């Protein structure tokens, strides 16, 4: 079987599994789990085979014209380079782990068949984006992911938080997709094709007429899909969905799509220095702002959500300084340890019965209840904090090294300003990342107080995948010497300067947070606040615990607001209350956009109902009244008719005489 045929099967198998799951899920319940897991596993195996056949060598290209569309044809095209081959493997690994994990996590959920089918469709759409060689075909996968995220985030649709979060995610990403679509058409018109290889060849020849405009339009869509400032506010609220969905969205699909798109078409963005500077500023604000917000969150999933936003900032920062290899390296590394963090958080939530870190900090022995989650999440948090020799150290230092390279004027494409912006923001974020990672670990696993509630053992399907993902989180960085052959040939080896600075700042962040925790814990012992009541129902199962914990954010807010043992409050000081609510961006957007739009909608409704409908009703009422008046004259009496005829004749005669007299 040819490599092209195998590549076609990679997105096709999860799609067929999704269709079969939707059709047979209710009628043949025994097939639901095999249809969820086996097609995704098969797609992973084939993706590994495609990557092995590629071997970091020549790109794989194949195309057939999908439909004649005039001067700019749409083609069903594949374009697989080393980057795409490895990203497809990442998507397959994370999606397979999520599907296996979900069989235990949602084992009692009556909506599991539709959930599993949507996860398979989500996976298929992302794989289509990864392998697509035509921008219009890529757009299909791009939009399908948006639809799937709407349904998956709103899985617990009976709760208002889930409904609001799914609608917000859909609308914010669609807001970015409008200029994105315009940018795609503008790019196709300039290049004369939607084919990625043709566009890149045109850019290499300097053939784009409006590179800055096109790049900025495309960045709007990337900001929405990859949750970058200022369109990042949907991602923390998306935690209202099941935890496995969060792992899938944050690690391998949806948010990775925007970064992947920029990496795929990096020469288009590099053709405009202004676009790279804008991308660098966007990355810097995203990195630093999200790290500060993560340090103030009480909900464990919201901490990880803001962490994802910040790590995506590193990815866009690497692209802003023109290093696709560093961006892809961190994308692969981040996908492994972030999926592990979310799936581990799901185990902790089940064991604790709450999402609240403040509540967990008052539970003694939680780490003993979930030893698998404790050890694997420790590995993942060390990778997140970029502590050597874990994978996050190598990939994050590759980004900082690329920024240093651009800042010192050694980059041929990236402006020096972009390099300095990314480098400074990246170093500051390294310190803050270690701080919030340490805070999460201390509050979740070192609680003081009554023993943690016993909600039963977690299914083996939930704990086994944690160890699977712990392997790349620990050892993936060792591939740093091999990966350049799969990308652009640039060295990804960390530089001495950024390694010392980045690791030193990470250690400082971790040690300072530990010191703050010891101080605040001592204060809490001297001034006890009383235990936080936590009752998610010991016999309620995973679905009930998840629903209660996820959809009561006010509980976490209240706990954090009155918890003196939270080191984040000491570290942030008066900034804490602003960081806890995402620096009021939601309130700002509500004042600037949501309320004016709602007011305009109310005005339009008033005009439609009270003005337009008045004329419409009048147009129907006037003939009806006229008909009623005329109907009264139809008496059936011949004498009345003759009298009326005679009166009319007299009136006409008098009128004629008057007219003749006036005329004379």
UniProtKB/TrEMBL annotation:
Residues 68-115 form the NADH-Ubiquinone oxidoreductase (complex I) chain 5 N-terminal domain. The chain crosses the membrane at residues 6-24, 36-56, 76-100, 112-131, 137-157, 178-201, 213-231, 243-263, 269-296, 303-321, 327-352, 373-394, 417-443, 464-484, 496-517, 641-662. It holds the Pfam family Proton_antipo_N. Keywords: Membrane, Oxidoreductase, Transmembrane, Transmembrane helix. Its main location: membrane. It is a multi-pass membrane protein. It is found in: Endomembrane system; Membrane. Its EC number is 1.6.5.-. This is NADH-quinone oxidoreductase subunit L. It comes from Streptomyces durmitorensis.
